[in-house]
Amino acid sequence: MRISTLTRKAFCGLLALSAIGTMTGIATAEPVKLRVGWAVTPGQLTPIIFDQPGLAKHLGKSYTLEPIRVPGSAIALTMLAAGDIDIVNFTFTQLSPAIHGAGMNDLRIVLDEFRDGAPGYSTNEYVVAKDGPVQKVEDLKGKVIAVPAIGTGMDVFMRAHLRRNGLIYPRDYTLIEAPMPTMKAMLLEKKADLAVAVKPFIMDPAFRGGSRTLFTQKEAVGPTDMLFLAAREPFIKKNRAALVDFFEDTIRATRWYMDPANHEQAIAIVSKFTKIPAPALTWAFTKEDFSRDPDLRPDLASIQQNVDMLKDLGLIKQSVDVKAHSDLSMLEEAVARLK
Description:
Elements: H1 5-28, E1 32-38, E2 63-69, H2 73-82, E3 88-90, H3 95-101, E4 107-116, E5 125-129, E6 144-147, H4 153-164, E7 174-177, H5 183-188, E8 195-197, H6 205-209, E9 211-216, H7 217-221, E10 224-232, H8 233-238, H9 240-258, H10 263-274, H11 300-312, H12 329-337
Parallel strand pairs: 1-2, 6-7
Antiparallel strand pairs: 3-10, 4-10, 5-8, 5-9
């Protein structure tokens, strides 16, 4: 069949317009906005991760970063369910509630943040007033305990330890919620008998001097892959390329912060963000801080062990197959780029 000259010209014109439209779409494609949760810095680097120039090769190109402060992992779960956040900061305590409680069978662990109680590194503390009546865990019966938010990791770790010592909530003690920066006031003003003490807040001389460590997180639940990032599978599939770029930049930046050669600059960044004088932050990114894997690879075996522990203690009804709810393929691709 012969095609007329007019028809052929019209067809070629349509092809040209289509090509121009495709090229324009590529040129004007907006970077993916990644809304990522964080709670405390420098434990979590999210809000300062790219403050050192030159670390983020893909920022503003394939993705943009919106750090969202979330007081605890239980609140992060609520925000994820509501679609108010894309990548959550989770502890192992939230996996079963998310998957079995909230029906998020598509939840996937994608990147690590830090680990508590690794050999030779720091661990979170639970403190009482130095001049107070609580000398041992059993003395907490009938007392008031301050936690960042009910259902968060710091709450559940404490409950696990107290349960082993015969104290069960709410029968034996009362819980109140208090943001991390207010824990010093809650304890020293005798509004709570036990408080959560994390860095940098416990490094305040008044907080340290007026308190005594009753037990540590490591004593409560052992070494812990304390915090990791998780996202839902539909979001991952839609934005996989941008996530690989983000993970590559994040790993590169984390390695920069952990490099002793950059310690002074890293502390200056943390000091500017937290408004804490640099001399009070010298512990950060050293053995006095939490442990971080250089590839930010989650310790799935450790997470599984701790999830199973919650089931054994009766704190959750069902355990979780941690490996089945992980997707480390993007992390592995990002690490390969950096070699």
